[in-house]
Task: structure prediction
Amino acid sequence: MTDELLRVDRLVKHFPVRGGALNRVVNQVKAVNGVSFDVKRGEVLGLVGESGSGKTTVGRLVLSLEEATCGNVFFDGINITALSK
Result:
């Protein structure tokens, strides 16, 4: 058993920006772009950053409240991004 409890690997989340007469996707906001970190058992992690830097989005992605554009979240060795909803 490894001491690694949580591993976030190259997490990305892009939100579509819609516009125009047909409400098509015209752009995308890159809220989280390639975030990676590890948390070992017994450690505490704090996310610090400016307003709008993606802290809440990272938290929502780790908790599977949002679907990641790409990247993986592993909890206790299990890839939770691959689990069915």
About this structure: The beta strands are 4-19, 24-40, 70-75, 78-79. The chain has one domain: 4-79.
